[in-house]
Design brief:
Belongs to the Rieske iron-sulfur protein family. The chain is α+β, with helices and mostly antiparallel strands. It has 9 helices and 10 strands. It has 3 domains: about 35 residues, no CATH class; about 120 residues; about 150 residues, Rieske [2Fe-2S] iron-sulphur domain (Rieske Iron-sulfur Protein, 3-layer Sandwich), CATH 2.102.10.10.
């Protein structure tokens, strides 16, 4: 049952014109109200202007200003040390082929590069907040195409801004800023330059760990997969079955990245393409296996939509049809996902018939399609 309204629940309806008349008779101080005919909403108010400027401590205290200058110089110096440390870490902390070595090298490079970049960023922010001019300026809107006079004024404003920053008068500060900005690009330029003579053997992308008779195993446990264990509509992330000691090696990380597969069981009647160009059957009883590496830029493709049989790449939304040879139906990818030909062994486990018939991953200079 609803409650009955009380007297204090009722509201008094006031005509809009009464409110406007009341405002016009007793206008708010400092506000110019203009109304249109018919007592509509106010259409113009007086510009309140720029609030009174408040001086900072560095504007009134020379000692505080010098302290802030030294602090900014210190931050730029820390950035320089971080950049130098990054270069040292690149050569001194090299990956030794183990997971721990790769992790240590990555952490050393990441921390030193972060120190270098953060030093520049924090120094620039502190400089602008404590030492640069903070006076408010109002510029009227104008047409996009500025007149020569306006452009001259803009150039003058930029010149005034450089003068306000004080960079010309503060030699130590300028030197620290230039040094930090000059050293930071070396943190990624040195590794790039030093890798020019590295391993450019692209033939390794043509072959993976898959070979005839290799069992398909669940990722990451490595447990072999029976065809009978998969129901229609199910999907599984798959790796090749390898010895446990090999799974603990650094080489396994690289090889696994090329060999990962998404396994899906479809209704056999839904399959529109499950054969190689030579006419061989590459699926087994509706079970298909495709590379998880997107043919666009190599992201992991693993978002499977059961009703449409579409596989979506989360990076750039390339979409592949699992029922039709993993052909591209949407997005920037320009070729289907490579298919792993599969069958079953005498014990009912899923095995590979062979390696992928084409290189996995994105296209490269020897494979444009």
């Amino acid at each position: 049952m609803g409650r009955r309204p009380r007297a204090d629940d009722r509201c008094r309806c006031v005509d809009r014109s009464e409110v406007l008349v009341s405002e016009n008779q007793n206008p708010t101080p400092g506000r110019d109200v203009t109304t249109t005919s018919g007592a509509q909403d106010p259409e113009r108010f007086t510009d309140p202007g720029v609030p009174a400027h408040k001086l900072r401590l560095t504007d009134t205290d020379p000692a505080a200003r010098r302290r802030n200058e030294r602090l900014v110089v210190l931050l730029f110096a820390i950035s320089c040390l971080g950049a130098i440390g990054s270069i040292v870490a690149y050569f001194a902390v090299r990956p030794d082929g183990t997971t721990e070595g790769v992790r240590l090298s990555t952490i050393a490079l990441g921390v030193t590069m972060a120190i270098s970049l953060l030093g520049i960023g924090i120094a620039a922010i502190h400089w602008s907040k404590s030492l640069m001019s903070d006076h408010e300026h109002v510029d009227e809107r104008h047409e996009l195409a500025s007149s020569p006079e306006v452009r001259e004024v803009a150039v003058q404003h930029l010149t005034d801004g450089v003068e306000d920053s004080g960079i010309a008068r503060r030699g130590v500060l300028k030197g620290a800023a230039v040094s930090a900005l000059a050293l930071f690009p070396l943190t990624f330029a040195v590794p790039l330059i030093s890798s020019v003579g590295g391993d450019w053997n692209i033939s390794k992308f043509r072959h993976t760990l898959w070979e005839r008779g290799t069992r398909l195993a669940y990722d990451p446990t490595g447990r072999p997969i029976r065809a009978a264990d998969l129901t229609v509509g199910s999907a599984a992330h798959v790796i090749p079955e390898v010895p446990q000691e090999y799974m603990e090696s650094h080489e396994w990380i690289t090889e696994k990245a090329k060999a990962v597969v998404l396994l899906v069981r479809l209704n056999p009647e839904d399959l529109r393409s499950d054969q190689s160009p030579e006419g061989e059957t590459w699926s087994y009883d509706g079970i298909v296996a495709y590379s998880k590496i997107c043919t666009h830029v190599g992201c992991p493709v693993a978002l499977y939509e059961q009703q449409t049989h579409h596989l979506l790449c989360p990076c750039h939304q390339s979409t592949f049809d699992m029922a039709d040879g993993a052909k591209v139906v949407f997005g920037p990818a320009n070729r289907p996902l490579p298919q792993l030909p599969i069958t079953v062994d005498d014990e009912g486990y899923l095995i590979a018939q062979d390696d992928f018939a084409e290189p996995v991953g994105p296209s490269f200079w020897e494979r444009l399609k």
